[in-house]
Structures are given as structure tokens and as C-alpha cells.
Automatic annotation (TrEMBL):
Source species taxonomy: Bacteria, Bacillati, Actinomycetota, Actinomycetes, Kitasatosporales
GO biological process: AMP biosynthetic process; ATP biosynthetic process
Protein name (Swiss-Prot/TrEMBL): NUDIX hydrolase
Domain Nudix hydrolase: residue ranges: 6-134
InterPro entries: NUDIX_hydrolase-like_dom_sf, NUDIX_hydrolase_CS, NUDIX_hydrolase_dom, Nudix_hydrolase_domain
């Protein structure tokens, strides 16, 4: 009998900032060269790390941005490399910082919500854009 493995725990944010665009905001997406994808900033939690603290840490590591976390957003559940993965998300406003490319993330784009939906590589990430807009009462 095999014992089921615990899911890989991860956390991230749908990072946003105010903008002069039609929607009044822009969403940050990161490009990860290892996977060749565009996604919301996220990553695995360290042992014993609180999910929200991990989400804020991952945003800082991947985008260079300090953020103010807000409403929780839907949790994503999917398989990654044959293992169950659970990613908790929060809305987070970028408040300061600057992006510097690194080995994990080589590009960052600030996009309108409509553009962000189109750029996101994985279908599972698109509903998070709508969840952010609903959390900010813009939907």
C-alpha cells in the first residue's frame, strides 16, 4: 500500500498597481525561462513558513517589488511533475521596488487585465485575474 504524498505547498500573489489605463490598474506577470511560461509570481513555501509570508517573499524575490497583500484569492490545485501542488494566492498592491532580471525570472510585464489574460500561459491562472477584479470591486 502506498501512502499518499502531501501536496507541494506554494503561495503567490496577483500583483497589481494603479495605472492611467481604462481599467485603472495593471497586473504584473513574470516570465520564467526554466519553464518558458508567463505566470503570476509564486513559489514553494519553506518548511514551516506561513503561506502569506511566503507569498510576499516570492513576490519580492521574483519581481523586486514590496507589496501590500490584500484579499485572499482562489487556491489553485494541479499536478506538477506528477505531484499534487496547492498554490494559495492573494491580491497584492505593489508599493515600491524595481525589477532586476535573475536566473529564475528574466522578464516582468505590467499589463491591463485583458492583456494579462492573453499573456498567461496556463489556463488555471486566468481566473485569478477575474478574482482580483472582483476583490477590488472592479468586476
Amino acid at each position: 500500500m502506498t501512502v499518499p504524498q502531501k501536496p507541494v505547498r506554494a503561495a503567490g500573489c496577483v500583483l497589481w498597481r494603479r495605472a492611467a489605463s481604462e481599467d485603472g490598474l495593471e497586473i504584473a506577470l513574470v516570465h520564467r525561462p526554466k519553464y518558458g511560461d508567463w505566470s503570476h509570481p509564486k513559489g514553494k513555501l519553506k518548511r514551516g513558513e506561513d503561506a502569506l509570508a511566503g507569498a510576499v517573499r516570492e513576490v519580492a524575490e521574483e519581481t523586486g517589488m514590496d507589496c501590500r497583500p490584500g484579499a485572499p484569492l482562489p487556491t489553485a490545485h494541479y499536478l506538477a511533475n506528477g505531484r499534487a501542488k496547492q498554490v494559495r494566492y492573494w491580491a497584492a498592491e505593489a508599493v515600491a521596488g524595481a525589477f532586476v532580471p535573475n536566473s529564475e525570472v528574466d522578464r516582468l510585464l505590467w499589463l491591463s487585465p485583458a492583456e494579462a489574460r492573453c499573456y498567461l500561459t496556463h489556463e488555471r491562472d486566468r481566473p485569478l485575474v477575474d478574482a482580483l477584479l472582483a476583490a477590488l470591486h472592479l468586476a
